[in-house]
Amino acid sequence: MTAAATLARARADGVTLALDPAGKLKVRGTDAAVARWLPEVRAHKPALLAILSGTGPAPAGEPADPATNWRWLISPADGCRFSLSSTPPATRAEVEALHPGALVDLEPSPAPVAPHHLEQAAAILEPVPTPTPALVTCRTCGHWRRDQVGDGSGLGRCLASAPASFKPGSCWPRGEIVCREHQGVTE
């Protein structure tokens, strides 16, 4: 296990590793948890001091220890294959202990994407412009009926009961609205 993995897993187990003002490593937690982690802490003490003081490699990026990995392919006996991501990185033995009887392999890093595939993806993912809805008038719609009172130039009615017909300004012969139910006819 790497120093970074020791630090992360000890924290997950309730053990805090920190530097005191004099720069000495302090281990805090329950007696049982500290006893479990003390051998690992001792084994990685110089690297842990470097990480905690900020002078060592940060516990990010690809694992520094080639025996550990972030991604594993697990193939249990039932034939169901799946990928396992481990943060912090885990050793093959740790992953095999979690999945007894399964075949454990390193998951290969993804291959770089070919430029022509990037161009295809960009074309597919390019935003489609949203069409601007057209303004229409009720008098040009087959659903509109003229007012029967007066000269017929007033408020009419919508036979389709389109939602737009209930909005202010609708059903007037010359009022411009956006209506999905509009059925164009010539005047």
Quick summary:
The protein is α+β, with helices and mostly antiparallel strands and 187 residues long.
Number of helices: 5
Total strands: the figure is 9
Q: What is the ordering of alpha helices and beta strands? A: HEEHHEEHEHEEEE
Output the radius of gyration. Answer: 35 Å
Q: Which regions have little confidence, pLDDT < 50, spanning 5+ residues? A: 58-64
Percent of sequence in beta strands: 15-25%
Helix content: 25-40%
Kindly name the structural category.
Answer: alpha+beta
Shape from CA axes?
Answer: elongated
Biggest sheet, spatial arrangement of strands: 4-3-5
Averaged pLDDT, please? 78
Number of domains: 3
Distance between the termini: 82 Å
Q: Quick one: biggest sheet?
A: 3 strands, antiparallel
How would you name the oligomeric state of the polypeptide chains in this document?
single chain
How would you describe this protein?
There is one protein chain. The protein is of the alpha+beta class and 187 residues long. The protein has three domains: 3-53, no CATH class; 68-106, no CATH class; 136-177, no CATH class. Helix content is 27%, strand content 20%. The chain has five helices and nine strands; from the N terminus they run αββααββαβαββββ. The protein has helices at 3-12, 31-43, 45-53, 92-98, 115-125; strands at 16-19, 25-28, 68-75, 82-91, 103-106, 136-137, 144-145, 157-158, 176-177. A three-stranded antiparallel β-sheet has the order 4-3-5. Strands 1-2 form a two-stranded antiparallel sheet. A two-stranded antiparallel ribbon has the order 6-9. Helix 1 packs antiparallel against helix 2. Residues 58-64 have low confidence and may be disordered.
